[in-house]
Every structure is written in structure tokens, then in C-alpha cells.
Amino acid sequence: MNKFFLITALLLTARLCAAQQGNPILIDTAKKFSISKHGYFYEDKNLNLTVDSIIKYKQAGKLIPLKPGKVFSKGYSQSYYWIAFDIKNMLNQAVNLMFKEQSSSINQLRLFKVDEGQNVHPLGLTGDHFPFKQRPYYNRSFIYPIVLLPHEKATFYLWADKRGQNMYMPMSIGRDVDMIQAEIPQHTLFGFYTGIFVFAVIFNLLLFASLRDNIHLYYAIYIFCTLIFILEEEGLAFQWFYPNLPGLQDYMRLMMASLSCGLLIQVMQLFVNQNSTNSKLYRFTNYYKRFCWAMFIIPVFMFFKSFIILEKTVFYINNFLALLTVIVMIIGVVERIRSGYKLGWYYLIATLMLLFGVFNYVFNTLGLTNFNLLKPNGLVVGLTAEIIFLSFALTQRYNFLKKEKEVLLEEKSRHQVDLADGIFNAQEDERTRLARDLHDDLGGTLSIIKLNITAFQHKVLKLAENDRIFYDQTIDMIEKACADLREISHNLMPKNFEQFGLIETLNEHFKTLNHSGKIAFEFVFQVENPIDRGIEITIYRIVNELVNNIVRHSFASKATIQILSFTDRISIMAEDNGIGFNPDVDKKGLGIHNILSRVNYLNGKIQIDSNQNGTTTTIDIPLK
């Protein structure tokens, strides 16, 4: 029985060795060839294997076959990895091939060619820890040109150092012309996505400049950070911006990721108006946002001094933050939606678009999956969809806030009108009460005093001449007090105003002025439709102030007061031939101030034209 198991094990080992030696990539007229169906890998945990060692391991059948059709992915790596594959040229002519590793982020990468005579030919050392010009072929991906002679067979060994990162290595091999042409649509696609990102950054900066709304500034910075992150992931930032600073892109990715997470939370808070009064999560999201921004500092120090445990910790924290950020955003937005903030639906949809891309990217990074849902990858598509939709949502937010502001202004205006109505009504009620009290109480008292004093008139003849003069002065003072009281009472509330209305009251007033005054007043009116009592009493106050100003200050001999009623407005005009005044200097006077306040209360417009030949004041009051 033991011999049976031993023989079986030897046969399996021999078969495995034969498989590792006899499964080459056959180069024919095809444009591209699969490595995963023919290749093997080995994990060097001790970091001490050489190419000679791995050749012996392959001959001994110790390598592990790659998974056909799957991208080589092992998650976070602290080891070196070796990839081996055989190639045989089936053609009668030499072929020019290219081997491409397109993860665009590898510390060190070295390719060896071993010919049939077991001679080892190094094809070059590259990686993003070396200057860009050291690459065998100037490209964002790592490309090695390969030449095979007619019917030549060779084995290739790829050594990869991706410690401190995710071991995710999409590999391909094909004819050089076809591999170069395949890069064109990739660059075109990234150019398209980059254009969208750049446009969104400029668009939000312009909105910030015009609206001074901080959400657009934060969102523009977020889009810029994600753009840099994507360019770092594809190796384009290293190629374009800092080709002589190898290793920087490892830390730039971490910094941009941390900043983006914090900025996303900040934008969410501003978009859904999350604050301490309407959200139980506000304190947590604030602390979480600051933690994300604090994580930005660690990669800065790692650039100068780093060790594998710190790199591993930061690697897992950043991937965890990417997932948690989206989840926190969704919970925060849902909370605001449930509290009645309907605009949050826009942000929720945009976040769900981002969710699939982030999960796809993080699961690939952790080695849990090894596929992309969409091209060029799920993260780029998810971010682009989120940016496009959220930019649209920001415009909707602006319209929403504009309408909300209009409603608030309308309510404020209505409240101000109601408040003004209350003030003016209270003033008129107080004027009416005061006029009645003055007329009934103080007027009656003065009349009684006058009657009592005149009752002693028959005794005045017996008084001395000085006493008679004093008596006559007292009677004159009482009569003047009664006249002043009647005038004050009339100004506070014209007699029979409620019964006769505006026009008749003014008619009587101007008759009195023309009978006793030095200015000849002409009153012109045309009022066909009844006027609201509140407007009538306010117009009376305006006309009364205009007349008082003419009487006291104009030194005019003639004046015309005109009131015309139209379907949509009432026009008031006051003209005199006096000395005029400077409206800009004298507009702060009490009379002008009272006129302006009442005209504004009625939403009217006033125009004053004054010079040395007189003054014309025109007032238009809308009826609707």
C-alpha cells in the first residue's frame, strides 16, 4: 500500500513537472496571447530567491499555476512574487512582441529571459521607485520589448516587488504594433474622463466665484483630488508631472484618498444642510471628517521614513475609510430625507452611483475580487457618474434654495406688510382716540373755563385799566387755545372723515385754508371708484403733510393739489410757486420723512422737482 502511494505521488510530481515544462505560449499569427493559461507563480516570503533559484523551483514543479482568465491578484503584499511562462515561436520568421504589466504601480519589476541553453538574459529593471526614463519602454504601464527568432523557445521569469501595496497585476503579451495601438483607445478614454473632471472643477470654481457658496469650492477641491488619485492609479501623474521623483505616487495616492473622503463628508453636510439642530449624526460626521483629513499627514512622513508595518496599517485604514465614507454619507443623507429634506434624494442617487465603483475598487485592492465591472475600471466610472449627477444636483440645489429664498422673502414681506398695517392701524386708532379725548375732555374743559370767565364780564368795567387788559388777554389766550385744540384735533382725525371720505374732507379743509390763509389753494380731483379706507386715510396724511410743508416753508402765493384715480393706481401731485428747496439736503426733515414712510408703506413712488421757481411733488400709488 505504501509503495502504491509513493508511486502515485511520483507520477503526479512527474506530471506536474512535465506540465510546467510543456505548456508554452505558442506564437502564431494572433495579435494577443494569454499568460494566465500558461503561466505559474511563486511567493517569495523570505525575500531571498534569485532567478537561478526560481528556475530550479520550476524544474522541480514547485510553482503554482495561474488561474486561467483571471487577473493575478493576491491582495495586500509583504512578499516578492515570481511569474514564469514559456514562449515558443511557431513561425518561420522573427517576431517582435511586447510584455505589459499594466497595474502602473510596482515598486520594482525585473524580467529575465532564459533561452534553451539555460542562459539568463536580464531585460531590465524598472518600477515606480526608479526614474521614468529608466523604463525599457516609455509608457504609463511597464512594457518590455521581446524579440523571438524563428522557432525559438524561451522561458521568461518576472520578479515583482509590490510590498506595502495590493498585489494586483494584469499582464498581457502580444505583437508590438498591436500592443501600441491598444494603448490609443485607453489614452483616449482617460482623456475623455479627465476632460469631464477638469470641466467639473472649473465649473464649480466659477460657481463659487459668482455665488460665494463654499460647497462649490469644497466640491472643486474634491474633484481635483480624485482626478489626481485616478491619474496616480494609472501611472499618468508620474509620467506627466514628476517623472524624476520615483516613489512619490505611492504616497500621493494615500494622501489624495484621505483628503477625498473628508471632502466628500464636507460636501454632503453642506448639500443636505446637516447641522447640530437637525441631525443626530452631525457630531460623528464632523469627527470622522477631521480624522480623514488627519490621515493626510501620515503619508507625508512616510515619504521620508517608512516601515512595512506602518505601510500595511495605512493601506488597510485607507481602504476601510473608502468603504466607510460612502456608508456614512448614505446614512447621513437618508436621515435628512426622512426629516423632510427632499433635495437629499439627488445626493443619495449620486452616492449610490459611487458606491458600486468604490466597492469594486476596494475588493480588487484587497484581493477579494479580480475583475472590473466597467472599463477602464469601476472606480473611474463610478466617480465620473457621481460627479456628473452631483453637478446636476448642485444646480437643482441652487434652484431649490432660490425658490426657498423667494418664499422666505415673500413671507418676510407679508409679515412686514402685516406689521406695518398693524402699526399704522394702531396709529390711526390712537389718533382717533386722542382727537376724541381732546375734543370731548380738554375742549369741553376750555369751553367751561371761557364761560366761567366771561360770566364776570359785567364786573370788568369796575376793574382798573391794567386788570381789564389782563382780562382781555386771558380771554384771547383761551380762544386761541380752543382754536389750536380744534386744529390739532382736526389734524389727528378730520371731523366726519368716516362719513364723507377723503375728497369731501379735503374740500372742506382747502375752503378753510383759502378763507383764512395767505396761499390760494386749488384742489383738482377725479376719483370715480371707491378707495379702500386704509389707503384713503394714508393719502389724507400724505396730502396734509404736503400742504403743511407748503404753508410753513414755501413762501408761495399759489398752490395746486391734484388727486387722480385710475384703474391700477392713484396719482397725487402738489405744485407751488414758492422758493423751492434742495430735496437731497432737506429730505431728512420730519415732514418729508413722514411722507416717504407713508408712500413706501403703500409701495408707491415719489418724485420731487424743486427749484427757485417752485416745487412739484408727484406720487404714484399702486392699487394692486
TrEMBL record:
Enzyme class: transferase
One Pfam family from the record: 7TMR-DISM_7TM
InterPro entries membership: 7TMR_DISM_rcpt_extracell_dom1, 7TMR_DISM_rcpt_extracell_dom2, HATPase_C_sf, HATPase_dom, His_kinase_dom, Sensor_HK_TwoCompSys, Sig_transdc_His_kin_sub3_dim/P
GO terms for cellular component: membrane
Residue ranges annotated for the Histidine kinase domain, each copy included: 433-624
One MF annotation (Gene Ontology) recorded for this entry: ATP binding
Keyword Membrane among UniProt keywords: yes
Keywords per UniProt: ATP-binding, Kinase, Membrane, Nucleotide-binding, Phosphoprotein, Signal, Transferase, Transmembrane, Transmembrane helix, Two-component regulatory system
Enzyme Commission number: 2.7.13.3
Protein name according to UniProt: histidine kinase
Organism, scientific name: Pedobacter suwonensis
